[in-house]
Amino acid sequence: MRSVDWQATPLGHPDGWPSALRSATSLMLASPESMYLAWGDELVFLFNDAYSPILGPRREQAMGAPLRTLWADAWDAVKGPVERALAGEGSRFEDMPVRMNRYGAEEDTWWTFSFSPIHLDDGSVGGVFCVTREVTEVVVAQQRLARENERLIALFEKSPMFMAFLSGPEHRVELANPRYAEMVGHRPVIGQRLADAIPEVIDQGYLPLLDQVYRSGETYIGTEVTYDPVSTDGSVVEPRKLDIVFQPVKDAAGQSVGVFVQGLDVTSQVALQRRLRRSEARHRQIMDSAMDYAIFAMDLEGRITLWNEGARHTLGWTEAEMLGQTPERFYSEKDRVARRFQHGMRVALAEGGLSGERPFLRKSGETFWAQGALTLLRDEEGTAIGFVIVLRDRTLERAAIDALAASERRLGALVGASSQVLYSLSADWAERRQILRQGDTAQLLAPDWNWREAFVHPDDRAALDAAIAEADAHRKPFEIQHRTPPRNGSHRWVLMRVVPMFDAEGRVSEWFGTATDVTEKREAEERLQQLTVTLEERVRERSAELLMTEEKLRQSQKMEAVGQLTGGIAHDFNNLLTSVSMGLELLEMRVAQGRIDDLGRYVEMARSGADRAAALTQRLLAFSRRQTLAPTGVVVEQMVLGMMEIISRSLGPSITIGTHFADGSAAVQVDGPQLENALLNLCINARDAMPGGGALDISSDVVELAGSEAVALELPPGPYVRLSVRDTGTGMEADVVAKVFEPFFTTKPIGQGTGLGLSMIYGFTRQSGGQVQVESRPGEGTTMHLYLPRLVEGMQAADAAPAVALDSDVLRGPMRTVLLVEDETAVRVLVSEVLVSAGYRVIEASEGPPALDVLRSVEAIDLLVTDVGLTGPLNGRQVADAGRQCRPGLPVLFITGYAATAAVGAGHLEAGMEVLAKPFAAAELVRRANALLDPRQHAGRPSGQHTAG
Description:
This protein is an alpha+beta fold. The protein is 39% helix and 25% strand. It is an enzyme of class 2 (transferase).
């Protein structure tokens, strides 16, 4: 104030100021509050230091200036209060807005004013005293806070999250936004305890959680918790999935006063995430199913984040091995040094991707070629987030390409070396596309090569056109030979071969062909044909000669075999007949001399020779498969075990015996004694092959023969029991094995074997429907396998058919009638005498027809005894079959020295029939006849006839 020249103002020098002005000025200058006063009609402006900052740049001119001029920009705001104060009325304004220009620009300000009149001594008003305080910052802060509150209220009301404030330990609802109301079914909750307003929170466990948050002061956060709201209108309300936060609210002292509840209904998001996970799983499954493609993703640093099954299949590493790794792992050392992978990522970042083909390494270290594409991945906003690489193994394709290139090179070389004309024609045969090469045949073609006119003889064009039409219709290759047009008085023969070439749609795109000069070949063929005719005639003549020679050779071999057989038989029979004949001669001599005391010894010698001869013939019959068999069901294991004692005694202590049976119930239908004899014979042969001792193994198993295996064994397909005898003996060479079944062939020392044992086994086995197989090597022992048809379940050995009972009137006397049929007179007489001596009445016949006459008569016949091999039109079996037609169940005893299988039904006899092999003892004949005529069985009467004793 001291710097102001007050003399120049309407107020004049301060000494002349009214006391009221001086008092007000002193009060203002001493006050810490911002104040100013305006005096007189001019409203001369005075202010204190606290008011100075409000003036800003106007401060220098403010002291003593007229108020109206100084605050011209704010005059409209303060004019009213000033004028009222001048009129003697004070006023006060709080947060009054005033727009003013203090710093070169208009601004909104707020003020708290108090305008008071300053009274002179005479009571008039001399000026206005103003106490002011700028509250712009406070008002702006309040406005900001109000706006913030409005936003908070709007957020609370419009928030997608449900919110509520629960006060006190009872959790009384004080605030709840619309989303909260919607979640609880718009039930009235404000002012109520939560347990009363929403009772389901108790059973669902939310009330204990709120109690815990209130007591502990610790926040609870729940993710995807289940809330099952209760319907208030009876409608079905689906359970909801919620993300919730229970936040304790505390007072200044830190004590809990309530719980702020907020959360978000994430039911849709959870369902979406589930669908997304299923979708991702399906996508992953689809991606993993692309086994021919290695697909993997990387982040921006090149670390692998995804690895499909195709990548494992192609490269060898599993996803677990590759996650977090970089693809450099399967780059070659050269590419790693060149940082090719990093270069590819830079290019993909700049250009969006790149592709190419190059070699890579598998986990095994193998190098392979792959075609690959590296693609930059971006999010919805276009920001780069990673890369994806797709590789396809091109190893096989490159190999095929290399093979094709090599094939093309070979084709080029072949075309270059060919002497043929190679050409192609358009699909319609009209246009010559190209001639790949003209060789020697090119001389046949005219320069313009109008191929029909220049290449084909006029007489051959029709046949060629027909071949072309056929090829067109069926799109197939063809070849044809034709002549060329005559040149220089002669023509040439050309072989034309044409094949169709197809485009991608399967249509014929062109025809590729060759032309070969075959003139010389045809001429040679014609000459060859002439030679062939002559040669064929010569071949026919020579073949006839060879057939005759082969037949003679076969006959010679047969005779050699028969000679070998008969020689062996003659040798053995000479020995046997010698003992028989000499025994009879000595018997005759002693009877003539009257020396009868020791005749029995010579009789025994003759009988022994005859018995041995009979045994020899039985072996021959077994080999020839013409012995008579009596098949029964035989369980192989039981048979072998039952023979172990006799086998053990026969082999001796130096040989250990083992048995193995794969199927203990396996059975065969064979002649039991013959099978036992065959097994014992095999065991004895094995013993003789192990002179120093060893091991013998007898085993059986069931095999199913089929296909080539059955054919090789000459057996029909089906189940067989294989009985095997295996030894550890010396074994045999292949040439010896080939001859083991030949009669009289033996490897034993002279005098220790007849050579008929294995022949007999072979004949018996083949006659029983089986086969014998030999496995042997020198030093490795021998195994003999007998294959016999298995007796399957449901089959059994043939039982004797019930015979017709004898009439009681026949049994009253001992005399029974036998019809004896024998073509050998001496045998017939002897047999008849034996039967008569035994008490039988005998009717004799030398042939089949007379015997049939007797059988068809009313004559009582109790037993038919017949030779099998009768001379004349009927054999013994035919006589027996015919007799049984008119005399059902007639007992029959066949006597035979050569029992043909056809005569006894393929080697098997019917019930009530038996065979007695020649030679036989008289006692055996009578025993067998008596057995057949058991008093309990008789059926020899003609049908409808009965005769008294």
